[in-house]
Each structure stands twice: as structure tokens, then as C-alpha cells.
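lol ok so funny story. i was supposed to be doing the assay writeup but got distracted and ended up predicting the structure for this chain instead. priorities right. anyway since i did it might as well share w the group, maybe its usefull for someone
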Amino acid sequence: MIIPEVLERLEDPNLEDWLTAAVIEKASQPPPQEQRLKGSHPLSSGIIDLWMLEIAERTGKIWTGKFQVELNGKEGEHVQEPWLEHRGNELSFALDTQTAEITFQPVGM
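and the output, tada:
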């Protein structure tokens, strides 16, 4: 997921609150056509709540943190990632402060 506006807010004291809202908004948008064809945008469908986003490490090019998320896949939808089968999860993320790319991974996997 790429959120270009995050680069303008890296020094914002409310970055975590803003990023929470931005991830929810971005995840609720339909993925671009090429990602739909590849099935590579797992957060795009079924995210219903995201909270407690915390950036734990803010040094270097890659900042890392975690958040809680509740997912609700659409009925009849094929779940490609095993961790998406569970409704509540803790996800870690890495934010590239040069490209604005955010990658996600389940905690403990």
C-alpha cells in the first residue's frame, strides 16, 4: 500500500492518528485493476476496524510499528492468506519514509 501524503506528515505529532485514518480509507478503496487481477491487495476487502496503531521505531529509512485490525471477509470470498481467516489480528507494518510504501505482516508469523 502506498500513501504518498504520509511523507508530508512524518514530523506531525499526530502522525499515528492520521495514519490510522489513512490506512482505513485506503483499504476501503477498490484496489487498482492490476492488483485485483493478481489478488495482491489483501486489506482491500473486509477491513472493518483498525485501532492502536503505534510507530515503535522511527529511525532510518524504514519505520516500523503495529496495530490491531478486525477483518470481515465478504461471504463466498476466497481467502488467500491464512491469517485473514481470523477476524481479529495484530499486524506489524513497515513504512518506507522515502517511497511512502507500507507493507503489512501478521505479528508472530
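Residues 4-106 form one domain. The chain has one domain: 4-106.
back to the writeup now i swear
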